[in-house]
Specification:
mainly alpha, 3-stranded parallel beta sheet, Tyrosyl-Transfer RNA Synthetase, Rossmann fold, 2 domains, two-stranded parallel ribbon, globular, single chain, 14 helices
């Protein structure tokens, strides 16, 4: 039997290149080798999006993006998080055994607390809901970005504590991080993130993508000067699209001089367009049949609920609420 893989993405805006290479590509590559469960984390998104129309549109767009990127609904259980209410029930049980100092150590909370005087309970409790997402589905592995590894560690710690209190109930999931693309740089050199507003949209228009690529931060070296590719933000993104031979040839041009940053950006823009065009075409086909997309999510939720309902019965038995 294949190991069970689980992960998800928030419908909090336009999917970008970092989302694809940091997460979605992993899902697509592994869907033949794992029992894959992928969810759209709409409950998590409510911590930042509190507009009905925006959230609904984002959910559908993320589903379209997943399918366009190559997720096969015949191989992957793709569903919307809120369609499996057992996850929020389990989150409450975890709340009752988790201390506030434990959650205060979460990087996501620390970052949010530094930016705002007040943090919502939902954002503070984010690791608890994520632990419930993972553990309700008996996940073996969780593909995450390097900055999300702590959330899987939280899930393991919470599972251990629950097992110690109520008996052996949960398996301990393992994070899976692809080192070579664990951090995809944004146009400013920091990690590509919607919160930094430094992204390159995966399904943007040609004009939008070109505008973003041209914003990539570089040093002030002239075209004829030798450049260090290992500290160049443009070159870091070339690595995602070029094969080893192409990358070595480009590296040589950087070191020898004669390659300007404008030319490197133009090359990167073409690489991106060539790469995403087949996915764009696939997305357009799904866009013409949104009822089919809704049905895929509905059928995925049915599969996810079978596992969640079975697991929550064991949890209730162990806690003592089933009398």
């Amino acid at each position: 039997m294949n190991k069970r893989l689980l992960s998800g993405i928030q419908p909090s805006g336009t999917i970008h290149i970092g989302n694809y290479f940091g997460a979605i590509k992993q899902f697509v590559d592994m869907q033949d080798n794992y029992d894959s469960t992928i969810f759209i984390a709409d409950l998590h998104a409510i911590t930042t999006i509190q507009n009905k129309e925006e959230l609904s549109a984002n959910i559908l767009n993320v589903a379209l993006d997943y399918l366009a990127c190559g997720l096969n609904p015949n191989k992957v259980c793709l569903f919307k998080q809120s369609d499996v209410p057992e996850v929020t029930e389990l989150a409450w049980y975890f709340n009752c055994i988790t201390t506030m100092p434990f959650l205060e150590r979460a990087t996501s909370y620390k970052d949010a607390h530094m930016k705002a005087k007040e943090v919502t309970v939902g954002l503070f409790d984010y690791p608890i809901l994520m632990a419930a997402d993972i553990l309700i589905q008996d996940a073996d592995i969780v593909p995450v970005g390097a900055d999300q590894k702590q959330h899987v560690e939280y899930a393991r710690d919470i599972a251990l504590k629950f097992n110690n209190i109520y008996g052996d109930t949960f398996k301990l999931p393992e994070p899976l991080i692809l080192k070579e693309v664990s951090i995809v740089p944004g146009v400013d050199g920091r990690k590509m993130s919607k919160s930094y507003k430094n992204t390159i949209p995966l399904f943007g228009t040609d004009e939008e993508i070109k505008k973003c690529v041209m914003k990539i931060v570089t040093d002030s070296k002239l075209p004829e000067e030798s450049k260090n590719p290992d500290v160049c933000n443009i070159f870091a993104l070339h690595k995602l699209f070029l094969n080893e031979n192409e990358l070595n040839l480009l590296r040589d041009r950087y070191i020898k001089g004669g390659l300007g940053y404008k030319e490197s950006k133009d090359m990167l823009y073409k690489e991106i367009i060539d790469f995403i065009t087949p996915m764009r075409n696939k997305r357009e086909l799904y866009e013409k049949d949104l009822d089919k997309v809704r049905l895929i999510l509905k059928e995925g939720a049915k599969k996810a609920k079978i596992i969640a309902e079975s697991k929550i019965k064991i949890i209730r038995d162990n806690i003592g609420t089933n009398i």
